[in-house]
Structure formats: structure tokens, C-alpha cells
């Protein structure tokens, strides 16, 4: 029997009762319509942001495996592309860089499928999916007729969307608008760490291939690329960076990183979950006694399966971290990972 240890990057989770694969858009629609009528359905891409309980899922798992990139508009300066939901996200980014198209190079190396990208509004190194998405084709749960949802209807906010707030169904494809520069340069670098690694000032554009290579190197150094290294057997960042009122942040130690959110008048700042975890007393590589789950030795936001761990062990470690951060700093870290039949 297939288990979610076989289907997710953390390699934990119980059995999947029924597993079906959809290799085209039409197969995806047909499978969803067939099983929504009489079963519980879980739509899964590469399982890079999903943790399923040790009891598994008593329903049908639909694996999205549709592939393809199509150029749907090209005015020489901007290029609109449609990508099928099952296409590997990083493979798409690699294609865009090879084509000289800017706008997603900072999101190189993020694991998962294209269809999963809008669900949590993925982002990294100064770029987010909401910056480039035009809209997407969506099949609402229980429906057999897809609808097109433009960006304005996707409810994007930091690492969330209308889909994480309750609109259920399956994304079939997404449309993005990328930028073609005559000299093959990236978008202006908008993230301090990336600018420093590249040896340039913020706001500088660099060759697209250089930007992608440096992002991949940075992610690899943090264990945020999926490899055979146990430190990469995780969902990446398990917790979200908290967004709090600036007045709350005043009570934190002066050295706690703070990042602006939107315009200054919002009165909100984003904190570093990694800093909070480490300064609450949880070091890289930490594990509870006897547990096979551990904080990554490369990055405290990644909770890893070091070999044979269970979902219960991952969640036990997550709860321990939550408790320490709450005790030390008065806030509760929320999971970025999607928890299925599992709770903190």
C-alpha cells in the first residue's frame, strides 16, 4: 500500500487508501469530478508542503502530473505563459531563465508543482508569485466546469490565498506575465542576503543565470533543496514568519530582525521565525531525546526526518518549539506546512 512517506518530501505519514494519477488537464477534471461525488479527495502535487498524520487518509489521493508550458502572448517586452498544474516549479523557473524571461528567478529551487504555488503565495529572495500571476484555471469542489480566476479574486496575502482560507477544488493551470530584457538581466535584486551573495547593491540587475545559480546555492546551504541529504527531508519552512503590530515588536530584543510589511502606515512588521526559534533556545540540529525528527543542522525553520521518523515525532518537535517561542516572546508560531489529519 502506498503511504504518504512515499508521496511527501518529509517522508512521513500513514497509508493512502486510493491513489490515482492525472497526466493531463482533462484527466484531472475527470478524476476530480468522479471522486468528489462519492469520496473524500486530497489533491497532491509533489507533497513538498504537506504533512499527513500517521493514520493516513481514508479517501482518494489525486496526484497532479499534468505537464506543459505555452506562450499565450508576447509583445517583445512582456511574455504571458500558461503552465499546467503538475509541472515542476523549479523546472519552469529553469525554462524561464533559459528563455531570458525575468520575474521568477528569485524563486529558483522551491520544491513542488506549479499548481501548488498560488495556494500559499510562494515567494523567496524578494519575489512572490502574486507579483507575476495573471490568473488561473480552477475547478471548484463538486463542479465539472472550470472557471477562470483573475489575480484580484485570489486573495493573496503573506503565504496565503483564498484557497488556504476555504475555497476548495483543484488548480488546473496558471498564467504568469514575465519580463524579457534585451540584455538577459534579472529583475532588480530586492533582498539583502541575495544582493550580498552576488556582491551587488540592492536594486541592481544581474544576469539571470547568475541570479538563479546564487539562489540555488543559498537554498542548498540552508538544506532547502530536496536531495538525498536527510536535512532536506522536510517541508522547507515548517513555520511562517510572524506578522505583528509594530507596537508588539517594540517589546522584543533590539537585535530581533524586523521587516516592513507594505507601506509604513500599515503599522505591521514581519519577524524572523528562525531568529525567534534560535533565541528561544532551540539550536540547529536539535532533537528531542529518542526522536528521529530533528531541526535541520542548516536552518532552524526546517523540521526534518532523519530516518524513520513518524508524523507524531515531527509534530511533537513542532509543539516543543511553539511552546518555547511562546514562553520567551509571547507569540505562537503558525505552521506554513499544510497539516492533513494532523494537528498542533
Q: What would CATH call the architecture of the domain at 69-221?
A: 2-Layer Sandwich
Task: Report the uncertain regions.
Answer: none
DSSP strand tally = 18
Portion of residues within helices: 10-25%
The fraction of residues in strands falls at 15-25%
The value of Rg in angstroms is: 20 Å
**What is the chain-wise order of helices and strands?**
HEHEEEEEHEEEEEEHHEHEEHEEHE
The global form is globular
Strand-pairing-aware structural class: alpha+beta
Outline the biggest β-sheet. Answer: 6 strands, antiparallel
| Secondary structure tally, helices | 8
- CATH fold-level label of the domain at 69-221: Uridine Diphospho-n-acetylenolpyruvylglucosamine Reductase, domain 3
Query: What is the distance, rounded to the nearest whole angstrom, between the alpha carbons of the first and last residues?
Result: 27 Å
Mean pLDDT: 94
CATH class of the domain at 69-221: Alpha Beta
Question: What's the quick description here?
Answer:
By secondary structure, the chain is of the alpha+beta class. It has helices spanning 4-7, 25-36, 89-98, 192-198, 208-221, 246-249, 273-279, 311-329; strands spanning 16-22, 41-44, 50-52, 57-64, 69-74, 78-84, 101-102, 123-124, 127-128, 133-140, 147-150, 169-180, 243-245, 258-260, 268-271, 293-295, 303-305, 338-340.
